[in-house]
């Protein structure tokens, strides 16, 4: 039996360190070094679960401005009691709308009976059940800011994503509900902190009331930015007390760096992130906003490819979807459409040529059904292409175009074997990114935006507002930026996708 990885989060990276002990007969890893705390776990120690739990609590403890300031909380100004009909001398504190600081949500709910169970994520070789609790999000009874004195800023970074305007809107709404009067938007991502001529935008409920009806970002977006110290200098100069950062992995890393610099300078600034990526590739979260909408739009592209392929003689519909680090969009769009014959993602290697290659399978599909549809994630098959070595403004490696490569390879292959093939290639990237959020994402954006404000008023900083195991929670940014979340090829969802497409192994 192969050794099992320690999986503290949904990552493909292993944290295993084998113990050197001749007395141990177990074939699996028996000693693990935890990523953050460097605490070593020896599974022969009867108290290893307790040590794991203590390490977990330490890692997932939420950073707060009270860590550097001796602050006394004040009663919250957030209450919806005023909107309800009072029936007598009711105590406002009895309103059951606040979250206790000790409330937790369980991160994982499946107790795997064996390390060989589909999708099993085990801590120890026996796959013991270990509770992993994370902090519940929501409004607290006590807050650490005077709303009338607060200046709050919102910034959207990276690329476009459905739902950005929904989150901006809800952050403004919730801040005003607390009583905040001074709310501003930072234009064009982190660039707005240092680019001359870019002025902050005053925001109010009236101004943002209908921005959710459009796609894009009301504040604009950009990649990259100035040095962290320069951004924090700007935050100090503008006297910003709360900074809400909307973005993906890179943006979260930037937000955490800003948070750390603010702590270093002992600034009373809460930095709260909201995870934004259509790729759904941030650790520990059920999903990020924009993902559902992206899948829905991608499904439309697949349907167009299906109609084109079915209507042509030996038609082959080829759709390239976004997925810089992971294949979640391609997998879910393939599942939801039900029209895909081949789904290719970066987590599962494949070959194009040879007896077991994709091209040979396409030959089979044209012979048996007359047409086919292929869905490929943008990061899939990069090992088959020449690497550019270039990076974008965010430091991301610029990927070679697997879609165009496959289009050319398919045409050449069928021409060489004398079989007619009509390739219909569709790349809906910008259509997927720029559209308005669907109902599912709009709800998610609404709650994430509200909870981001609740977290800031509760004094938390260096956290992100997200959804885990169907519950809304706060996570330390440090725990979600360690690596991209990727599709587990042993997961039930990928197995379901293979069942739907009927594709064989391509390697």
Automatic annotation (TrEMBL):
Chain residues that bind substrate: 277-279, 322-324, 378, 430-433
Compartment annotation: Cytoplasm
Gene3D superfamilies listed in its UniProt record: 3.40.50.450
Lineage: superkingdom: Eukaryota
GO CC list: cytoplasm
Catalytic activity: beta-D-fructose 6-phosphate + ATP = beta-D-fructose 1,6-bisphosphate + ADP + H(+)
InterPro entries attached to this UniProt entry: ATP_PFK, PFKA, Phosphofructokinase_dom, PKF_sf, PyroP-dep_PFK_TP0108
Enzyme class: transferase
Residues the entry annotates as binding ATP: 159, 223-224, 248-251
Keywords of the record: Allosteric enzyme, ATP-binding, Cytoplasm, Glycolysis, Kinase, Magnesium, Metal-binding, Nucleotide-binding, Transferase
Activity regulation field: Allosterically activated by AMP.
Keyword Magnesium on entry: yes
Phosphofructokinase domain span: 152-454
Active site: 279
Pathway connected to this protein: Carbohydrate degradation; glycolysis; D-glyceraldehyde 3-phosphate and glycerone phosphate from D-glucose: step 3/4
Cofactor(s), by name: Mg(2+)
Residues flagged as site, Important for substrate specificity: 250
Entry keyword annotation includes ATP-binding: yes
Residues annotated as binding Mg(2+): 249
GO MF, one example: 6-phosphofructokinase activity
Function of the protein: Catalyzes the phosphorylation of D-fructose 6-phosphate to fructose 1,6-bisphosphate by ATP, the first committing step of glycolysis.
Family stated for the protein in its record: Belongs to the phosphofructokinase type A (PFKA) family. PPi-dependent PFK group II subfamily. Atypical ATP-dependent clade 'X' sub-subfamily.
Assembly and binders: Homotetramer.
Protein name (record): ATP-dependent 6-phosphofructokinase
Species assigned in the record: Urochloa decumbens
Name of the coding gene: PFK
């Amino acid at each position: 039996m192969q050794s099992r990885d320690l999986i503290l989060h949904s990552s493909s990276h292993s944290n295993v360190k084998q113990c050197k002990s001749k007395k141990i007969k177990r074939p699996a890893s028996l000693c693990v070094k935890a990523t953050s705390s460097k605490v070593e776990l020896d599974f022969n120690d009867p108290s290893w679960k307790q040590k794991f739990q203590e390490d977990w609590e330490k890692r997932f403890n939420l950073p707060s401005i009270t860590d550097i300031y001796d602050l006394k909380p004040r009663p919250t100004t957030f209450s919806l009691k005023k909107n309800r009909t009072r029936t007598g001398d009711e105590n406002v504190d009895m309103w059951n709308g606040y979250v206790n600081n000790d409330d937790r949500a369980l991160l994982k709910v499946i107790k795997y009976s064996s390390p060989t169970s589909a999708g099993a994520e085990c801590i120890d070789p026996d796959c013991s059940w270990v509770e992993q609790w994370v902090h519940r999000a929501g409004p607290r009874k006590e807050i650490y800011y005077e709303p009338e004195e607060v200046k709050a800023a919102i910034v959207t970074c990276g690329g476009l994503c459905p739902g950005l305007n929904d989150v901006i809107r809800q952050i403004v709404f919730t801040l005003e509900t607390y009583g905040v009067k001074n709310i501003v938007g930072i234009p064009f991502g982190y660039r707005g902190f240092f680019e001359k001529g870019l002025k902050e935008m005053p925001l109010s409920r009236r101004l943002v009331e209908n921005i959710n009806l459009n796609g894009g970002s009301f504040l604009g977006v950009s990649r990259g930015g100035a040095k962290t110290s320069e951004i924090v200098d700007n935050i100090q100069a503008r006297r910003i007390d709360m900074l809400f950062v909307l973005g993906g992995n890179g943006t979260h890393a930037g937000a955490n760096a800003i948070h750390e610099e603010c702590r270093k300078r002992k600034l009373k600034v809460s930095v709260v992130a909201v995870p934004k990526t259509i790729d759904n590739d941030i650790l520990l979260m059920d999903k990020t906003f924009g993902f559902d909408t992206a899948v829905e739009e991608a499904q439309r592209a697949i349907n167009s490819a299906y109609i084109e392929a079915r209507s042509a003689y030996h038609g082959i519909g080829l759709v390239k979807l976004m997925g810089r680090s992971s294949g979640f969009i391609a997998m879910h769009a393939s599942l939801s459409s039900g029209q895909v014959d081949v789904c290719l993602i970066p987590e599962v290697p494949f070959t194009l040529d040879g007896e077991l290659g994709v091209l040979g399978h396409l030959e089979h599909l044209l012979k048996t059904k007359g047409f086919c549809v292929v869905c490929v994630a943008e990061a899939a098959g990069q090992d088959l292409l020449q690497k550019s070595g270039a990076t974008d403004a965010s430091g991301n490696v610029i990927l070679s175009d697997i879609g165009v490569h496959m289009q050319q390879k398919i045409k050449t292959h069928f021409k060489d074997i004398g079989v007619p093939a009509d390739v219909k290639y569709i790349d809906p990237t910008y259509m997927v990114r720029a559209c308005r959020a669907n109902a599912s994402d709009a709800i998610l954006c609404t709650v994430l935006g509200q909870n981001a404000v609740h977290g800031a008023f509760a004094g938390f900083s260096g956290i992100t507002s997200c959804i885990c195991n169907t519950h809304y929670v706060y996570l330390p940014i440090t725990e979600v930026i360690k690596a991209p979340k990727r599709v587990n090829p042993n997961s039930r969802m990928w197995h379901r996708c293979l069942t739907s497409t009927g594709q064989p192994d391509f390697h």
